[in-house]
Structure formats: C-alpha cells, structure tokens
Amino acid sequence: EVYNPNGKYRVVSTKPMPGTRWINLLIDQGCRVEICHLKKTILSVEDIVDLIGDKCDGVIGQLTEDWGETLFSALSKAGGKAFSNMAVGYNNVDVEAANKYNIAVGNTPGVLTETTAELAASLSLAAARRIVEADGFMRAGLYEGWLPHLFVGNLLKGQTVGVIGAGRIGSAYARMMVEGFKMNLIYYDLYQSTRLEKFVTAYGQFLKANGEQPVTWKRASSMEEVLREADLISLHPVLDKTTYHLVNKERLAIMKKEAILVNCSRGPVIDEAALVDHLRENPMFRVGLDVFEEEPFMKPGLADMKNAVVVPHIASASKWTREGMATLAALNVLGRIKGYPIWNDPNR
Ligand code: DGY
C-alpha cells in the first residue's frame, strides 16, 4: 500500500498501524509512505531487507522484528537515517549497531503508560477473583446454583501490592492499586525513581485528612524483600542482561504460597519453565501473564494451569494508545529525516 507516491522521502512501515494520523503527518511533510501487508505475523530479517530496498529514508518497525546489524546495515546502504520501534520496549533493537551506522533509534513511551497499567490491574483482579476460571465454568454449563465455596478468591483491600520497576508504568499501576483498592505498597526500583514516594506521601495525607485508614508504603532495599512480603506482585522492569530470568526458581520459592504474580513487561524476565513447575506445585499461587518467554509460544503445561490467566501481549492495546504509538513512531522517523532532534530517543 503506497501513499503519496511522489513524496521526496521514502518511509516504510513493516506493518499496517492503527489510525490515519501517522500517515497524514508523514504525507504532509513530503514523505512517500509504504505499508507492508505481507500475510505473515512476524517478518523475517530477509523480508525486511526486501522492504528496505535500494532507497529508504526511514522505517517504522515492530517489537517482533530483529533489528540488528543486518537490518541497520541494509538501511544505511539505502540511505536511511531513522528507525522507530512502535513500542516503548526496545530489547529487539541493537542500539549499538544502529549507532555504528549513524541511524537514529526511536521508541514510543508515555502514550501507553495508563493503558498498560490498566491491563496489569485487570490481570491482577482476574487472577485474584478467578474470573477466567469462573467464566469457563459458566460457559461449560457447570453452574448449578450459589455455593459458599464457589470460586473463592483473594480480597485485595488491605493486602500488600509489590511493584518491581517503578518507572512510568510501574508507578501508574501502583497508584491504581493503592488508590483504587486501598492496598499497602512495597516497591523496588533500580533507578531510585521518586515518582511513587511523592504520590504515596500525598495520598497518605489525603486519607488522614478525611479520617480514612491510611495505607502503608515502603521502598524495599532488595527485590527479595518485595517477593517475600507482597501478596500481589507486578513486574515492570526493562528487559536486559540484568533482568533476564529475574524471577527464577529460587525467587519463586520465597514468595507467599498464595501470592499473585503479574507480568506485562517482557516474557524472559520470568523463567517460564520454573514458573510452570511452581504453579503445578502450588495451586493457590496465581499468575496473570501478558508476555511469554518465547512468543508466540507458551512453555509446555502453562495452558493447562487453572491458576494462570494468559493473554497475548495486549497490554498497550487500547485504540487511543495504539494510534498514539503509531503517531509517535512516525514523528520519531520524521524528526530525524528532517534534521530535528529525534522525538523519543532511548539513547538519551
Ligand atoms: C511495548 O510497547 O513495549 C509493549 O510491549 C507493546 O506495547
């Protein structure tokens, strides 16, 4: 699909993206926009080399693609200056290789913060109240009437929510759980973010002024402290060498037997095979997963676990957010092509 065929700059999007704002803004600035409609979900490096062709000024790509040496070299040979991931995470991008070829790299933070935090909250509730299990029970025609023991789950109010990684998304999630469900908070953040401190202090004062029971909060000095103390834990770190298998067999073992673990960050942050064993051995332990170690696959056994809620990497999937991500990605590429500082450069 080609828009504005005579445009001066050739910008390729490896996938159709939501909305038209991103297309219009590129066209308005003199770009020819080419959108790939190949009928396969994940494009190979070879597919993308073909798309780049002989002349290409910039590419908007997806987190399922392997943006490394081969692609940046091909883009550079085609005269390209910019690549933007349509994602905030960029573990699929070799930023060093991009730098080597003087290609700017962009990502799309900010517009997905609340949407992603809302999915983490949804998974937390779905796991706590066994919603998916109960839904399956109804659909299977098994409901014979109200029973005192039917699908008894966890009350979140007054329990402790643990957040690992208190950046934009982790902090938004923490606020939702503390404000919405009056949970106590414990969090651990490598980067010493002060976002949450300010919020919880102000919120504590508000509760006090209104005569309501205050929530407690603390910044943990280790991840283990969070894992040991929290009833519900949500993971929000970036994926890099230091966070690969951050939650492993040993760390699962120190969590409460009835804890809930939620992951909307990246799959490899959890050792998924160890998680499956843990779920099997601890039926009261529950998880809500949006991401998997080797997407699109799940580790054997996970799909059979009643104590797991699984969804296909949809944390940022609201219409507003996805259109915003597409627009930011287009702005990133455009900014560089036109010689402006790139909009969102994860290098900075
Ligand atoms: C991201 O942006 O990194 C998410 O995983 C997809 O929205």
TrEMBL record:
It comes from the Eukaryota. It is found in: Membrane; Peroxisome. Belongs to the CDP-alcohol phosphatidyltransferase class-I family. Belongs to the D-isomer specific 2-hydroxyacid dehydrogenase family. This is F-box domain-containing protein.
